[in-house]
Amino acid sequence: MPMKEGKMFIRALFDYDPNEDKAIPCKEAGLAFRKGDILQIMSQDDATWWQAKHEGDANPRAGLIPSKHFQERRFALRRPEVQVQPLKISNRKSSGFRRSFRLSRKDKKTNKSMYECKKSDQYDTADIPTYEEVAKYRRQPSDKYRLVVLVGPVGVGLNELKRKLLISDTQHYGVTVPHTTRPRRSQESDGVEYIFISKHLFETDVQNNKFIEYGEYKNNYYGTSLDSVRSVLAKNKVCLLDVQPHTVKHLRTYEFKPFVIFIKPPSLDRLRETRKNAKIISSKDDKGTAKPFTEEDFHEMIKSAHVMESQYGHLFDKVIVNDDLATAYSELKTTFDRPKSVYCTMSMPEKS
Ligand code: 5GP
Fold first, then answer.
1. Which ipTM did the prediction report?
2. Does pLDDT of 109 surpass 80?
3. Which position among 12, 106, 116, 268 has the lowest Cβ density within 10 Å, counted as fewest Cβ atoms?
4. How far apart are the first and last CA of the chain?
């Protein structure tokens, strides 16, 4: 994509210190930055070293930073748990794919399947976080009705927090209605528990990138569509959505401008203390009754939170530790109530 020099802004997704960089041709010429900094790209003429300055820096002198491609390659070589694979282009539109490789985790553990990586621009957030392209954005009054994405390991209490928020103000908060291909049960109404559609339509919608995520359970499809988020926002409500963390990058578009909150477990000792009488909803016995937490559940929760944070931490706007529910809930509420800065930077809209 040809870039107009000096017109492009990127968000750094890692810390960089040229003094620690053995590859930089001249350390004094390097530009140090921290994860989250917004940088203005002045030149991309060199494939390995770009010239950039910090946003708003009046000094016209630009410094050297590693190019996205160069940094991705370096990160990939340093991370043994990821494999660099040639990008497989699926039967969806291929013109937008610019990345020359993508990553897959050997230990990827999820029961929700995500369809192939959506088309991306050169600067979308890869699984190796380097930079993402951003646009300056003036906040609108309507932004208070935005998408809030909650991410966290199984059992951390994410659903309970979501439920408390919802019942605290049903006029202000809303949730999406998922689609399913399973038959409607007698007590269910279309559009309430689920939107019931045929397998054929579901598959067509998957092909047309209409789902944020979908999965299969007992030969039926279940999924959450982008339109279901739009319909909550159209009612002037904050849309609360919980998803697997790998899904977040597809939601970080100019249209949705999501606020991403990671719900993190406390220490192992605090988990034992605070959850000793609690039950884990996702773990049910043969009769479908929720089971008490086990030591294994606690360990799994902490391990899974660690993996999520190390792999997707750059996508989280806020981390809340759910030590005790009341404190975590009040922190969550304060996060929403606190006014945000007048300007913020957001991922560029995806081009079709
Ligand atoms: P049921 O048919 O009993 O309502 O739900 C069966 C399973 O589908 C549950 O385990 C539920 O968590 C899962 N499910 C419900 N909605 C969705 C969704 O939007 N996406 C995915 N991947 N699974 C869902």
1. 0.92
2. no
3. 106
4. 14
In whole angstroms, what separates CA 222 from the centre of its chain?
Answer: 20
For the stretch 159-197, pLDDT in tens is: 999 999 999 999 999 999 999 999 999 999 999 999 999
Give the residue with greater pLDDT, 125 vs 130: 130
Q: Is the CB of 202 under 6 A from ligand 1?
A: no
Instruction: Answer yes or no: is the C-beta of 188 below 6 A from any ligand 1 atom.
Output: no
Give me ligand 1 centre to Cα 128, in Å: 30
Question: Which residue's CA lies nearest to atom 20 of ligand 1?
Answer: 223
Closest CA to 226 of 192, 181, 179, 164: 179
pTM (global) more than 0.95: no
Q: What is the per-residue burial (b if ≥16 Cβ within 10 Å, else e) of 234-250?
A: eeebbbbbbbbbbbbbb
Of the candidates 7, 100, 13, 5, the one whose C-alpha atom is nearest the C-alpha of residue 44 is 5
Contact of 43 with 69, CB cutoff 8 Å = no
Q: Is 182 in the pocket of ligand 1 (CB under 6 A)?
A: yes
Torsion sign (Cα): 142, 152, 135, 333: positive
